[in-house]
Structures are given as C-alpha cells and as structure tokens.
Specification:
homotetramer; mainly alpha; 9 helices; disordered N terminus
C-alpha cells in the first residue's frame, strides 16, 4: 500500500491498523460498499436527468403538441447525458472488476468522480434550456471533461504505485487502460473551443462520435 | 460469445481478454452490478413519479379539499405508471434469473431499457396534467411501447446467438418467453391510434387490460 | 405454493416451471432483488421528503430568519413521515428475515406496499404546507392507514396458506405478528375522524403515540 | 445484548426470540439491509444536492454567462455539502466494518443519522441562495453539528454496553474512535457563533479546515 499517498493512515495508524489488516482478506466487503454507493449515485444521476425535461409554464391543452415538439433540445440533452453517464459507469464497472484492494485515497478519488457525475444533471438542464448558446455548450464540455479527468485519476492511481489491482493483470493491459482513459477527457477538452464558437457543431460531435468511440476505446 | 455483436471487443481484444476469461467463472459479480444499477434506476423511476403529483399554485387552505379531488388524473397516472414500471421490473427480474453471462452488447441493451424507464416519469406528468388531450395520450402510448420494445430487445439478444442463458433452459421455454415479450409493445402500439382519437378509451384500456394481461403473459 | 393465489403461474406453467424449481434452492437470489428494489424505494421516499421543505418564494436575505422559523409545520411533517416510513422499513426488514420463498403474489403485494410508501411524500407536502387544515390531516391519516393495511397484507399472505416462511417459525409467533401488523392501520384509521374535526389533536397523537407504539408492537 | 436499551424486545420477547437467536449466526444479513438502506440514503442525499443549483427564473440566452457565474455560492455549497456527506459516509463505512451484530436501538440510532443526512440538502440550498446571511450560515452549522452528534451517538452505543463490535477490536482503538467521533460535532458547534457574526469566515473555516481534518481524524 502507498503510505505517502494515503494521509488518513498517517496519524492514527495505531488505531485502524488491526481491522485494516483483517480487511485485506475480506476486502470485497469494503469495496462492496464503495460500489453500492457508486451505483446508487450513478443510478440517481441517470434518473434525475428526467427532471430537466419540463414543459413551459404557459403550456395548456391546446398548445401541448407544439410544446412537446418545441422542447426537442431537452430530449437531445437527456439522451446525450444518459449515454455519457452510462459510459462512465461501464468504465467504472470494468476497472473495479480488476481492483481487489481499497484505501482512503481510492475512496476519495472515487468521491471526486461521483461529485462530477452527480453534477452533470445541471449542465444537462442548461444545455436543454439554452440550446445553441455558447455558454451552455462550454459549460457542458468542461463538466464532462472534468468528469473524465477524475475517472482517469482513480484509474491511474489504482494501477500505479498504490498497486490495488489483481496480481495477474499484465503490464501491457494496464498501459492500454491508462492510455484509453485519457481519450474521453481529451476529446471533450478539444470540443471546448468548438463549443465557444459553434455550439451546434460541438453538440453534433458529442452525439455522433459516441458510437464510434464505443469501438475505439472502452 | 458473440464476437460480431460486441463491438467493444473488436479492437482492444488484447487488453481485456485476460480478465474477461476469468470473469466467466465469477460472472455473477459482473451481472450483480448490472442488476444493482438497474434496480436503482427502477426504484428511483418508481419513486420520482410522486413528484408529478402537485397541487395548483393557487391552492390555499380554503380550497384544499377541492384541489385534492380535482387532481384525480394525476393519481390515475401515478398508479398506472407505477404498475407499468413494476411490470417491466418483474420481466427484468425473471429474465435475468436465467442469464448467467454478460457482455458489452447486453450492458448497452440494458441501458437502452433503463433510458426509457427513466424517461417514463415525463409522459406520466404530461398525462396527469393534460388528461383527455390526444397529444398526452399518444406520447404515453409511444413511450411505453418503446420501453416494451427495448425490454424485448435485450431478451431476444440474450436468448439468441449470444447464448447468455443457463444451459438447462429449454428451447420451448425460450420461444414462449420471446413471444410473450412482444405482447406489451404490440398492445401499446395498437393503442396509439386509439389515444389519438379517444384518449379516455385508451386510458381505460391501459388500466383495465393490466390485470388480465397479468394472467396471459409474464 | 398457492396456485390459486398466483395467476402468473396459471397459463404458462410449462414455461416457467423448470427455473422456478431450481430457484427453490437459490431462492435467496430472487428475494435478494425484491429486497434491493424495496430498499431503494424506501431510501428514496425517505430522502425525497426533504424536497417538501421549501422557503416561500418571497423570501429574501432580510426576512430569511423569520421564514426559516415560519415553516415549522414542514419540519414537523418531515420528521413525522421519516419516522413513519422508517417504521414500515423495520417491519419489512423483520418480516423478510423470516421469509425464505417468494412467488408472484408476494411480489405484487410488496409492490402495493411500495406504491403507498412512494406516495407518502405527497401527503407529507400537503400537511407541511397546510397545517391545521382538516383536508390535509385526513389525507395524511388515510394514506398512512392504507400503507399500513398493505404492509399487513403481504405479512398475512406470507404467513398464511402460501407458506413462504422459514419452517421453524412457531404458530404462536405468527399469530402475534399478524395481530401486531393490524395495530398501525387501525390506529391511523381511528385518527381519521379526529383529523377531520381537530387536525392539531390528530398530529399530536401521531407524533406522541409513536415512541409508546415502539414498545407495544413491532 | 442490552435488554434495557432495546425496548422492542421488552414485551414481545416470546415472539421474536427464536429468529433473533438464529440471526446471531447470519447477522450479516440483518446488517446487510441496514447498510443497503443507509447507502441508498447517502447516495440520494449526495445526488439531490444538484437540485439546489438552479438558475434565476429571469435567465435568458443573453445573460446566461453572467447568470452561471453569479450563482457561485451555489457551487460552493454543493461542493461543501458533498464533502461533508462523503465524510459521514466514510465514518459510517469504517465503523460498520467493525460491527458484527445489530439490535433495534442501533437501527433507530442509524435512522437518526439518516434523518439528518437526508435533511442536509435543505440547509445547503439555503446557504447557496443566501450567501453571507447569518441565519443561513447558522442553520448550516447547526444542521451539520447535529448530524455529527448523531453519527457519534451510534458509534458510542455500538462500542459501549451494547457490545456489538468484533471481539478483537482493542480497548485503546475504541477509545480513539470515540474521541475522534466528537471532533466533527464540536468543530461545527464552535463555528455557530462565528456564523452568526461573520458568515463568510465560517464558510472559509468549513472549506479550509476540511483537508486538514482529513489528516487528524477519521
């Protein structure tokens, strides 16, 4: 374990050492609750996206049909963010299949990811309510880019010095996982200037690159 | 496993192969998190339906009783959608009892179902706020029909070439499951034209056919 | 198993029989997902109660303190409903510890309970916004009474002819559980007329009887 | 077990004794559902915080950028409360790793904690909407202080007479855990007067002491 990277263990080492050693054998328990909490946050973030789809307050029975069609940017934002969050869950799922130990740093890096995942419904709401506005598109690109960076962060930590992975994961496999974990944040970072000057182009890039991306990285 | 149907495995085969082979033996783990996420989305979709039951803003202490009775279409839509989502959960529950392997295509087909499940609170809100309006009833019928179609999609995939089922599930059983999985989407597709011309008849069909349907299919 | 009480099994018996028989041995799996979904709905219903605590729209920095104190009925309703839902969870937890088999009727009786649990945030919101109004208090009493009745319903079913309990649960224990399961709905039914004529008395009864009730029944 | 501290067991002892004795061996089951419910409430509380980040109703496409920057207190409150709730989850996670038995008092003390955890989105919303207002800062400090006190309460109970811990947890370790569990509530109690007279100083204390606190206690 990485003693330097885990400040919790520094001072009260005397206190937690006993149960921690035992946990090494029942590590699944500790990781189990991390996954339960993470799955909860992912599931709720996915489902709260629907709260961003609302009809204008002036909608009545007569103009309902027009109102339902008029809010198409909200449907678009819903589908886009659903796919984005689902993608991050798939990466989380595949990475944690290979992780067999946890420590405080991993827990807090995971919370950093969850902080951004739970944040995504807000940029989604802004994008759905202000389609084609540069500020909305830039906010969205930055938010997903930061989420991707924090997703890469826990992966790099777990596969690095901390050595929390299964022993039979090969070096080449780890190198490939690390490289691919950068593709998401880099792609969204590159679309930030596009979003600032041509918001619709950025939105098209996000939704059309997605199926291709599914093939070339995780 | 179905190599053609699983694009994720195409390019980075070298990278993920090792853990995937091991996963075959601990497949329950992988499916366990898929079920945890799915149960989360189902539970939240069920519970968010209550947010669609709201009193008009002009409600005060004096007209509270009338206001509570006046929003009966919202109670109706709540109960209807609760039963609809519960039904999809029961099908999910019974199908995944028989599935022992997962792959990327199954994960994404399951996300397609969850995308529609998480969407249902919106048509429910529209139906509750605009009872008897064709656009609201058509939206509801189309949304449930698409949900049913995506529910059938993962079932057909899992029982087809991908062969993700328990080995002792018989051929006749699979044929019956496949046939019954079509009954939900076909029924709601048939009510789309009814909803367009006689919304109240469609609503009555949905709520009255439900107990009968419970007997004739899953 | 109770064939009459389980309509799902009637027609497609041929189809589901094989896996169901196997499930008897791995019944924990089936019940596990029922509990996961139920815990999700309970947790979300508990947490959504906070959305009922809102400040009036005309609140500004100057009158914030008064506004925070003025909404005390909303804090009261929050605490009351949190305790009520927590109580139903404890009963659910204790009952399902003794249940080792499930069938379709139990699943749907459990959904009936969840339908009412998920509904409780609405009467809570009405009670918090219209304190001292008979209609709000009656709605609340009726809603909790129906929740309690559906909680008793699955308990009576599981301990009755369906025989889903552990074999070593004694007859006297089942009689006592059944009797106690009626105390909640009967108590709230008795407060309905009180709520109609003296709403504050009913609210006092609910909150003060609670700690005593904890001693005399589950 | 602590008979006096567990009122549920008083009267109906005859009824519950049999299954409870058996539960001692499968205690993980009982604790498992407590953790599942708790993780659900923690996950939802974390994710509902995003609902507190909303743009003013008068926001349009032209002033969107200014509006997004202008609501910085809401981002601040979001991050602060996310870290606070995450901290309570980490303490919960570490404490329950050492608990191997449950009883009714532990369940209700845990519900007391969850009642305050689920409440935190409200003070967060008030803090985000009324930054620099003493009433908002005092409400926040009091709410977190009470949450910390209830977090300490279940820890003191479980490590005290009730004796619900693993037998190999040492006396010194328990003393250290008890001492550290007081640091959170005491710190937030001390910031109540600061919040009343210098709200911004209190907010700075909360966010800056956090990383240091991570080193000196759990």
């Amino acid at each position: 374990m990485d003693l330097l990277g885990d400040p919790v263990r520094k001072l009260p080492d005397r206190v937690w050492r006993l149960p921690r050693q035992e946990d090494d054998e029942t590590a699944g328990d500790g990781i189990g609750r991390i996954l339960a909490l993470s799955d909860g946050v992912f599931a709720i973030a996915l489902t709260l996206l629907i709260l961003d789809i609302v009809l204008p307050v002036k909608t009545n029975d007569d103009n309902l049909e027009q109102a339902l069609l008029h809010i198409w940017p909200r449907y678009f934002a819903y589908v886009l963010s659903f796919l984005v969050i689902a993608r991050f869950w798939v990466i989380h799922h595949q990475t944690f299949r290979l992780i067999i130990r946890d420590n405080a740093t991993l827990v807090w890096l995971n919370f950093l990811l969850l902080l951004f995942i739970a944040f995504l419904p807000f940029p989604t709401a802004v994008l759905g309510a202000h389609e084609g506005v540069p500020a909305a598109a830039v906010l969205y690109a930055v938010a997903v880019c930061l989420t991707g960076a924090s997703s890469a962060a826990y992966l790099w930590y777990a596969t690095g010095r901390a050595n929390l992975m299964q022993p039979d994961v090969r070096r080449g496999q780890i190198r490939a996982m690390r490289a691919r974990s950068m593709s998401g944040p880099v792609f969204f970072a590159l679309t930030v200037p596009v979003a600032a000057f041509a918001p619709y182009v950025a939105e098209a890039l996000w939704i059309f690159v997605f199926p291709l991306a599914r093939m070339s990285f995780v």
